[in-house]
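pinned: reference chain
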Amino acid sequence: MNRWRSIGVADQHGRRVIVTGANAGLGYQTALALAGAGAEVVMAVRDLDRGQAAAQRIRERIELARLRVILLDLQSLASVRDFALAQAAAGPLDLLVNNAGLMVVPRREVTPDGFESQMGVNHLGHFALTAGLLPALQRAPAGRVVSVTSMVYRRAGALDHGLGLTGPYSPMGAYSQSKLAVALFAEELDRRLRAAGSPVLSVLAHPGWSATAPKKAAETAADAAADRPAARPGRSVRLARRATAILGSSPRAGARAEVYAATAPGIKGGELIGPRFVVRGAPRPVPLAAAATDPVAAGWLWAESVRLTRTEPNPAGPMSRD
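pinned: its structure tokens
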């Protein structure tokens, strides 16, 4: 695990962490790094079989890894509530890594709760999850929430108030909108935590141009196209995946920013951590585009997310007594 020490991963013994989407890609690499540093890692996964297989791979590399694999389907608010209730009752939570996500779903899909699927998983599911777990994060000495965005959030320009349910559908457009929503939420959460005097930090991370993306997109497309041949991706999406597979960084390299944002001392709330040279390089704070720091858009998104998920993060909740 020396490669993780090189980016500032301190000893994580005694810390309880949750990583969503921990069975593959960036989430797997993040869980591996945190387990290797001594943390107790809850691997929150949509597929228990894949999650158990991923946990076994980690145990083969780290004999004393402390892992728990628990079902979490971010497409379902009921699943999110059940998971959050159980984990909040398990004691203080030191770290939540909102990593899981859908990417470039070939056609507009709707979750059981009526959300556009990419917005539903990437933002609204994690919004509700953070709300449910914030009391446990407040009870930790220095809780931290890491939300994983993508630099394609810049492509969105401005937040779509239809949240992907109205107007023409573009797979990459909907993905960009969902990642802009992730950034706006993380920044608004940071503002509210600071205003409440909370010790919890809200931090953003992006992996750069990572080759985990086309794999995730291909898995998403395969699931969607299984019963609907028309759901197969278009030519532009296929070409983008091929270019990323050739030029993008590995999932291990892409996870460096995520791990750094999760563990490095001196990180400030509201910072975006990413690779120095977009594709590769040591993680560091990088500038946020104005669209991600717009307080008006963030305030609207917060209120709408509360309405849609029927839950709200409470930054002024009980603080740690440690």
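why pinned: The longest helix spans residues 171-195. The two ends are 30 Å apart (CA to CA).
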